[in-house]
Amino acid sequence: MLKALIISVGTGRNREDIAHCICFSISNHPPEFVLFIVTEKSERETLPFVTSKLSGLKYEKRKISDENDVQTVYTSCKQFIKEIPYKPEDIAVDYTSGTKAMSAGLLLAAIATNVDTIIYIAGKRDTEGRVSLGTESALTFKPNIIYAENLFDYAISLFNNIQFDACKETLKKARNTIYEEEFQNKLSLLDKLATIYSEWDRYNIEKAFNEINTIDKNQMQFLSKWKIKNRIEQNKEFLYKEKNDKFCIERAIDLLENASRRANMEKKYDDAVARLYRLLEYGAQIKLSKKNIYKLVDNECLVDFNALSEELKTKYEKYGERLPLVRSYELLEDLGEEIGRFFMEEFNKKESMVKKLLGLRNKSILAHGFNPVEENTYLEMENFVVNFLKEFYPEIKNIPSKIKFPVIQG
Predict the structure, then answer these.
(1) What is the pLDDT of residue 34?
(2) Is residue 376 domain-shared with residue 280, that is, in the same domain?
(3) Are the CB atoms for 37 and 47 separated by under 8 Å?
(4) Alpha helices of 10-113 — where are they, by DSSP H?
């Protein structure tokens, strides 16, 4: 049973006609409480015809100060709805009678507060355009459809702005509003996509790949509609390569793109610089891996000093199996790799850009210091890292679209 019914009260042709429609609405949707939205005139001339037929039904009334101002009506009605001791899901609103501004304002307030049902009394019209007595019928509409679609649109916006956890929380709210199958299906798919890219954004490559692999043919219709089907397929291919090779150019490009998201979309320059540092380190590790100098221990790649000559083993063993960035490049130089020579030459310069940037990174809150990283520091480091690595990994010059996260359209 409906708990609360809110009805706008107009004056109509002779007052009794409006009272009849209002009583019809109450009898069709019998509540335990009615709130009448009245004007000074309708309170005086129409409401008595209604209340005389309520048979003890509990009711209250609220008066609109200006029934011809939509904004005033909307603001007042929104407040009235919030004041009554009923939850939105237990409230229905009938906006049939009253001025056009009253009807519009009450309707907008009903949608804004997400009441359960909106009612309009229709019927055959007489020569004056009024519903003829005895022909009334109640038309109902569930505004939670609007609320649910707004939540879904907001969830898409969050997804497109890489706020994946917030996207999933918003989808939880939308899931409990309407239960139409197609709507629930697209909610489930967006939730799946948010999971995929949340995992990927945190470098849980295998989890992201396993999840993207569960997208089925039935869900492809939404991907096509959202204009992201090709991008999803490209991302899947890219994740597959990363999953199967811990030292590949795809992971390097992924690190660079991740740094870009942190900086350009979130303005988290400390996080972005930390990723650029890791990318610079990873650039050395790829080359070392090609020389079979790493061993896999508990899913972690460590330097296998037994793969080195005695001279190099003696020189580098003191740094431990997790060789620091600079020592990794120094080892590459000792192994005759051009990338190592190039890096160490830059590092040993008196006015070394490498030392400057690594120093700024080391002083950041995410490393060993307390200084925030500013945008210009990030841009300097990005420029250096990209220009340095592209000399030896030309694939970095143009980040392929297949690494880009999808942006849902439509």
Answers:
(1) 96
(2) yes
(3) no
(4) 16-28, 40-45, 47-51, 70-83, 100-112
Indicate if 393 and 275 belong to the same structural domain.
yes
User: Two tokens at 374?
Assistant: 């500013």
Mean predicted lDDT score pLDDT of the chain? 90
Long-range contacts of 132-140 (CB under 8 A, 24+ apart): 133/17, 133/20, 136/20, 136/21, 136/24, 138/24, 138/25, 138/28, 138/29, 140/92
Domain that holds residue 172: 147-239
| 228 and 112 part of one domain | no
* Residue 267: partners with Cβ closer than 8 Å, 6 or more residues away: 375
Report angle CA 45, 50, 52 to the nearest 5 degrees.
105
Query: What's the pLDDT tens digit per position in 124-150?
Result: 766 555 656 666 688 898 888 888 999
pLDDT of residue 78: 97
Residue pair 26/52 in contact (Cβ under 8 Å)? The answer is: no
Do 390 and 280 sit in the same domain of this protein?
yes
The one-letter amino acid at 287: K
Instruction: For residue range 48-59, list pLDDT tens digits in order.
Output: 999 998 888 999
167 backbone dihedrals φ, ψ, rounded to 5°: -60, -45
> Does a structural domain hold residue 81?
yes
**Closest by CA position to 237, among listed 405, 403, 408, 396:** 403
Give the CATH number for residue 11: 3.40.50.10770
SS (H, E, C) 225-244: HCCCHHHHHHHHHHHHHHHC
Residue 261 DSSP code:
I
Is 399 found in the same domain as 265?
Answer: yes
